[in-house]
Amino acid sequence: MSETILSVGIDIGTSTTCVIFSDLTIENVASSMKMPKAKIVEKNIRYRSPIYFTPLRSNTELDTVKIASIIEAEYRAAGIRPADVKTGAVIITGDTARKENAQGVLHDISEYAGDFVVAVAGPALESILAGKGSGAEQYSTEHLDNVCNMDIGGGTTNTATFCRGTLIDTDCLDVGGRLIRFRDGTLEIAYIFPKIQQLAKEQGVIASIGTTLTERQISAITDCMAEAVLEKLKPAPEKPAYFFLKTEKKEKRANPPIHAVSFSGGVGRLLYEPEPVNPLEYGDIGVYLAQSIKKNLMTRGIQVIQPLETIGATVIGAGNHSVNVSGATITITDYGVLPIQNIPILRMNDVLNMTDETYASEFRQKAAWIQGQEKEQNIALNVEAGRKLNFRSINDLADKVVAGAQELLARQDILVVITREDCAKVLGQCLQIRLPEGKKVVCIDSIDVGNGDYIDIGTPVGIGDAVPVVIKTLAFSY
Amino acid sequence: MLLKSKLFGTVYHFKSVKDVLAKAGEEKSGDALCKIAAGSAQERIAAKIALGNLLVSDLRNNPAIPYEQDEVTRIIQDDLNEQIYNSIKNWSIQELREYILSDKTTEEDLKRISRGLSSEAIAAVCKLMGNLDLAYAARKIRNVTHCNTTLGERGILGTRLQPNHPSDDEDGIRMAIYEGLSYGIGDAVIGVNPSVSSVDKTLRVMNMMQEVKTKLEIPTQVCYLVHVTTMMEAIRQGAPTDLVFASISGSQLCNDTFGINAAILEEARQTILKGGTCTGPNVMYFETGQGPENAGNMHFDTDMVTMEARTYGFGRHFQPFIVNDVVGFVGPEVQYDYKQCVRSQLEDVFMAKLSGLPIGTDIAFSGHVKADYNDNDVVLMAVTLAGTQYWIGVAGGADPTTYNMESSHQDIAALREMCSLRVVPAFEKWCQKWGVMDENGKLTDLAGDPSIFL
Amino acid sequence: MSVRNYDEEKIVKAIISALEMLEDKGTSTVAAKDVTVKVHVQEAVGQVDDVPDEKLPDIAMIPEDEICFVDHLKNREAILELKKTTPARTLSGRVGDREKTEIVFRKNANLSAMVDAVWKPLDREFVKKMGYPIIKTKPNSKDEYLMRPDLGRELDEENLEIVRTKLKKNPDVQIVLGEGQSVLGLETSMPEMLPALLQGLEANHIDYGTPIFVEYTRVGVGDLIGKTVGAKVVCVILGERPGHLSWRGLGCYVTYAPEVGILESKRTAVTTIQDDGGTPPAEAGAYVADLIKRILQEKKSGVDLVL
């Protein structure tokens, strides 16, 4: 028994925008006479759009109208109505995410794109989706090495390292092809990202809007950017440029060992192609940056692999890899509450080994932190029992959860509980019994989430009760 | 035709030919369950004596289920060579036994009379044989078939590699395939019993197996043992299979519950001959074994041995590449213990060989049959001596899907070594190329390391 | 050798020290077997305290994916990773053309558990504590039960009378429990599954009448019991035929409008209900409660019910 759902991926990047539609096949992988178990078994791209330059209204603002018309035109070209789209993700990446109206655009597009198409953003998520979309994750599964994918786009470089299919590290640097742009056909700077300006200054190059650079000066800057990016391949990075260009987490920490590296994104693609005759073809430093990386790589002796996707890695990640499916035996007391979108995760570990008081105080503390100013914000609870679950301990767990959630339940009608272990049917049942009439339970399992993640839960996919779930990891933590 | 006999002064009367057949059989719980077995040890011998006096023609003229009523009977009867039948129809079953065992009788002689023996006659002579008789006679016959490679030649002990997985995870199956290959297992076929039986899954598993076969250049056959109708659909959708699998039985009624009949099997054969990845001419893979008709009350007062003989009479119509006899898995209601199981397997090998079938064996004790791994070992040794054409190889001797006791890769290696049997020649060359076997067909120090195939 | 979750060195040390101790006492020629015994009773001897019980290695409990008895592997890391994808007993290694001793222990250990699951006598106290009427089908021994599935579906007059008089009439669902082919399944998994099932039925306001325990159960006896009490649905939960990787499993068969001789295809089955690789019993109980609710709503079960 299998179901096919249509998924969309939309990537609005620093320099380019792209749309793909994929068919995701979800199958009941349990044998007959067993309880159902849902798994995504196949992902086929049905349609991919041409690559558009991302329309800008100014250096600091996206052109909402033009972006929307691109998306609408692509839906028409693919012969797909937004109502046909079951799931997917819209991602605003790189420098674009910093534009003043980014959040608004993201929201509008995801509203248009389909019922359960979610808006995602953030450097970690971008790294993960590009790493998955490029095929690096799969490569690390099949060839069993630590593989790092570096998605080098217009505004940022997002790295994701996978160890045999499991994500072990993400990182993000302000390194991209469009961080310096030139006036038509010249080397006169039309735009320069402030951090790069400072980096240039440290190399003795004064670069401001209106300055005309020499090729040697450009290479001095891109060599330095390349050095910073490839510092990632070292177990103990030390170059100041690496730390300077990192977008977050300035603390020193060890990198995982990396056995092979792949490159995706617009600049990443250039690494696998012959050098263009005109280095100013794109009117930016992209070609120079690619050359600097190539040159630098030769000195390192690391295995470079060609990914399945280069420029489309992120959009394929968004379309094919953003969605998971929950366990197929779960509890949803009222399907009317679905889809549930964009709720933060509060994770409680080791619940059964805590006293009621410790649990309550830890819960209150975390809830306050997550909710911040927005007291109305709904929260999804991720509970891990910390010991083997049986009927009794599941009841104990339900007691704890309900007692701890009293304050929460005074404000909200839905209790969302997520577990990794296969127990959501019975736990949901135990919760339901303990709640007053009118409160609804959404209890799903087989999902891995952490504190600070956000989650979206869609309507059932047709295999048992399984629902599609998008986890939006905002920060990658060990 | 005499349906009675005298023993120690007592006269024993029998109702019909199939009553004689049932009571002449060695003790099996499945026959007792159907209330057709001999009531005492002496009655059993009396029935054997009566059976010995019946003629080959008596057995043909009294099929277990009437010709008009049963497709299996029709195929058995219509497929016989009348010339040959006429030349032996007046032999008593006792004479038939002695002809088969005589050292004057050659393999060619046996293959000749095979074409004139109805399944009931083959079952009858089987019942006059001791275990050693069965092994001795079965050993005389080799039935050679060809799909992509040739199986069944004298001196060869093939293996079906059975890399099952509880959810048909493709990587999990691949791991078990590598494990088996590293022991020189898989020369007859690499065949997965499905846990999930969809067309989609069939396509994926077959694609993965063909990819492994092609990448490693393995000279063998690969197959996913889904229902024949599912496989036909998968072939139409492009599934690259070398064989089509079907469970078959000795009555039309039981075949109906298996969802097959002669028309479906013939359609499947034509489908794979056109759309399969195999050379042929033998493209079918049948699974049989005593018990399902009797456990499921679809036996028409016929004993398990006779039903099994009829299964072979039906199966040979489709010129299968391999026939897999499975014993021990149904449970104590058909074979109570190891003794009944080893008897069954020897009967099956003998009857299948005399029916002209490429018989291979699987001893798969379930947990509630009175048997253990020691019993498993004895069956392996006995049936190998009887000249079974292949065994099943399961990693570690325990199947993660069927949960039965099985023969392990090491068991097969020991049997090959002890009985001076070799792997299918093309496959042996392949094993030597990968370094897991030496020029004498013996496992090397590399054997058992599946990581060489990564 | 390979990845182990016990400290081999410590055990060797313990045995050596046990040997030394015995030699000190003048019992110099000791068979290895005796040493093991002495190690077991160390506390009584009071001198060897290197191997407390909880540290004793348990070869049967090492997870399959930690087992590797192949000494030389061309690509160890990669193959151990691939091995995790299957519960099959791979990387078992060889000694000549035979299996390693520890593999022989492991496979026979699993077989022993399987055999005990079938043949362990039913613990009557355990059954009594469940608090439900207890009856039996027609077989008079485990042997007869195993060989005569037909008798396991029938009740004699005395037992049928209990069904007629002691059970609540016309419930939504009649629950029939039994040891079936795995006493260990009954003892291990039933106490987890049954309360979750009953809780789920209560939450859905489904009348489950008086559950009954039937010794020597076959699934078909449920039809007779269900029909006799006039239940809309019968739910039989019994110990499942044990296998090499599972012997604590339960099987559950739910049948709408039960009657003697109903086709097997009219049952909805959930099998392999057990921890360790199956469906967790408590989760299965909650699932079956919902399943019964649906079967009552749709008035059908088995192949007619699309799940």
The most extensive contact between chains is:
B-C, 54 and 49 residues
CATH architecture of the largest domain in chain C: 3-Layer(aba) Sandwich
CATH topology of the largest domain in chain C: Rossmann fold
CA-based shape of chain B = globular
Structural category of chain B is: alpha/beta
Based on the structure, what is the oligomeric state of the protein chains?
heterotrimer
- Spans of chain B of 5+ residues with little confidence (pLDDT < 50)? none
Top-tier CATH class of the largest domain in chain C: Alpha Beta
- Could you tell me the strand content of chain B as a percent range? 5-15%
Q: Portion of residues in helices of chain C?
A: 40-55%
Largest sheet of chain B: 4 strands, parallel
Sum up the overall morphology of chain C in one term. Answer: elongated
Give a verbal description of the structure.
The complex is a heterotrimer of chains A (478), B (454) and C (307). Chain A is α/β, with parallel strands linked by helices. Chain A has three domains: 2-121, ATPase, nucleotide binding domain (Nucleotidyltransferase, domain 5, 2-Layer Sandwich), CATH 3.30.420.40; 126-309, Nucleotidyltransferase, domain 5 (2-Layer Sandwich), CATH 3.30.420; 326-472. Chain A is built from 14 helices and 23 strands. In chain A, the strands form five sheets. Chain A has an eight-stranded mixed β-sheet with strand order 16-23-22-18-19-20-21-17. The relative contact order of chain A is 0.14. A four-stranded parallel β-sheet of chain B has the order 7-6-5-12, covered by helices on one side. A four-stranded parallel β-sheet of chain B has the order 8-9-10-11. Chain B is an alpha/beta fold and 454 residues long. Chain B contains 21 helices and twelve strands. Chain B starts with a strand and ends in a 20-residue tail after the last helix. In chain B, 46% of the residues lie in helices and 10% in strands. Helix content of chain C is 41%, strand content 11%. The longest helix of chain C is centred in the middle third of the chain and has 21 residues, at 183-203. Chains B and C meet through helix 2, helix 11 and helix 20 of B and helix 4, helix 5 and helix 7 of C.
